[in-house]
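User: Round two. Same drill as before: sequence, then structure, for each protein.

Assistant: Same drill it is. First protein:
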Amino acid sequence: MSHAIQERPVTAAPRRGSLSHARLPRWTPAAVAAFSIAAGIGIGLVAGWHSKVQWGMIAALLFVLTTYAVTTKVEGSRQAKDRIATSLVWVCFVLAVIPLLSLAWVTISKGMEVLDVYFLTHSMNGVLDAEAGGGVYHALLGTIEQVGIATLIAAPIGLLTAVYLVEYGGGKLAQAVTFFVDVMTGIPSIVAGLFILSTWTLMLGFGPSGFAGAMALAILMMPVVVRSTEEMLKLVPNELREASLALGIPKWRTILKVVLPTAIGGITTGVMLAVARITGETAPVLLLVFGTKLINPNPFEGAQSSLPLYVYEQYSVGTDAAVSRAWAAALVLIAFVMILNLVARGIARWKAPKTGR
């Protein structure tokens, strides 16, 4: 018995050589990336290719192949497959980020040439499109009012619809609602504008207004709010609902005090994604709001302008002054969406349930 006990650790202990293997240094990916970029530029110059996109594609291909070859040589084929998957993820990430950074850089560099306090506080009243001067105040005011009204319409409807689908729905009605939400998700913006034009303007006889454009924007916003809120509510653990119901709390109060506060961060993010989508829409505004150079603070009567429509109008003129105003308005539009996202995240963090003691 004692002899068997003494021999077990010796026979069961794994060999050290079978568990240890050569590892590449941590700086290897950075070195391979630098080598691939240099080689891609060199091959492009030798081949006479002047497009930097071609250089980048060659560098990306070399990065993946070199990573696989080096890892196979040092760590083995199994680890090389893991490395090549990681390399492909990084290459796709870089390919997605570069156009975004390029767009942001061009917009900021061109937009800052005109953007100042005067541009933000004046309209195009009395200024010809081909002339320098003028501002974006009337379009910014119209965008704020139209997006605000659309959010007030779409956010509550989308939130209540998602709550119904997750907490109460389960029959044919819920299936029908889900089907129509999926259909509405793919509706082009021009179709929403034509729907409001045919009902609100042609059938009911109302004229162009910011409110008409806001209703079309609300149609585009609702399915995004429903889908994002629905997914966030599904992530709330059922244990929280069961604990509240076990204490005798009504279901509606459980949803209001437990479920919604738990998912408030994701819900707010979904609403902001919907707001970001409708903020840049031009077709419904062009059909229903018409656009104007004057300041119209009343969204329920008369034509209004908006930032996307202003960018379209100024770029269509084609002069240097008009194109500069278009870039500046595009920068204002991006800043507007960013500010809304920051405010929404601040509200979500403030209203989120506290996890610490």
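Second protein:
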Amino acid sequence: MQKFNKNAFTKFFNSEKTGGILLLFCVCFSLIIANSSEKQAFQQLLDQTLGFQLGNTSISYSTSVWINDGLMAIFFLLVGLEIKRELVAGELSNIRKASLPVLAAIGGMLLPAGIYWGVNQGTPTANGWGIPMATDIAFALAIIAMLGKNVPPSLKIFLAALAIVDDLGAILVIAIFYTDQIHWQELYIAGAIVIALATLNYFKIKSLWFYLIPGIFLWYFMHHSGIHATIAGVLLAFTIPTGTQTSSPLENLEHALAKPVNFLIMPIFALANTNITFESGMIAGLASPLGLGIIFGLFVGKTLGVSLFSYLAVKLKLAKLPSAANWKHIIGVGMLAGIGFTMSIFIAMLSFSDHLHVTEAKFAILCASVLSGLVGFIFLKTLKRKYAQ
């Protein structure tokens, strides 16, 4: 028997690629469950209510809500920490570099929405124009992590920043166009908590507990305001203190969250959100205006939108390309931005009351996301050059 190599296992466990491989495994496993005899039991597990009573306040949600709004807020917290670190003293500290993902994200929202609207205008599915606007940050980052040294490290930061801006845009679209009611009192309280956290940062309070405990309340009130609760993770991240020292509160929290997010939260997220049951009519629905609008919006619209707006921003000297990156890298990132998945599915469920439309939209989103991820991965992989991480 071959001797167990502890160092090899440690390297494998610590590799970013491992998180991506585990995530893709969970995607496949979830699809298998959703199309097996266990699908009903699995759905019941996701619908199971979990929570507790605290005085007159009931904190009780389904398992899927705890995963998508609770655990994903922690994921967004980690990504927000990385973005802030790069804004303070990294890839995004230069205003021309920081503006590129913002402008690219705007292009990556406008063109897909325009393509969908052009294809579906005047049809019963025209209301779904927001579906191809979203980028699934979790899956997109998992794919680019699997590329390892085939892409410059700056490209991961660029994609993360782009996807966060994209998600914030999608959240605003949901709040303005797809939300029946915003609870302003809860939103004002959430805003007051953010101001309080920023004040703690201003007075250089270093203890993480002074941020994490109010952060829980921030999540609660954001969740009840009607706006997607995961934005609380980003807002909290931007109030965590950082500095030039390597042991600042931001860096300490970032290191503490990395493995739980990569090896626990993201696999659970994939299991809960990829349980799409294949039904009759799904394949035919790909050729409908709904299916074509989603597929062309996500795959073509995202690639063109991100690439075109990036090109214009650089040529107009409003922005600068990420370090060691070229235009082929930007095109590849545009492809990966076409992985819409979770947020796109969420918007689809808000857009349509017809079950058939929702089902067709889910399948089209899955196909477009797989196409975008696969083509983007192969495209970036073929660039061949190795970069120091």
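The mean pLDDT is 88.

User: Perfect.
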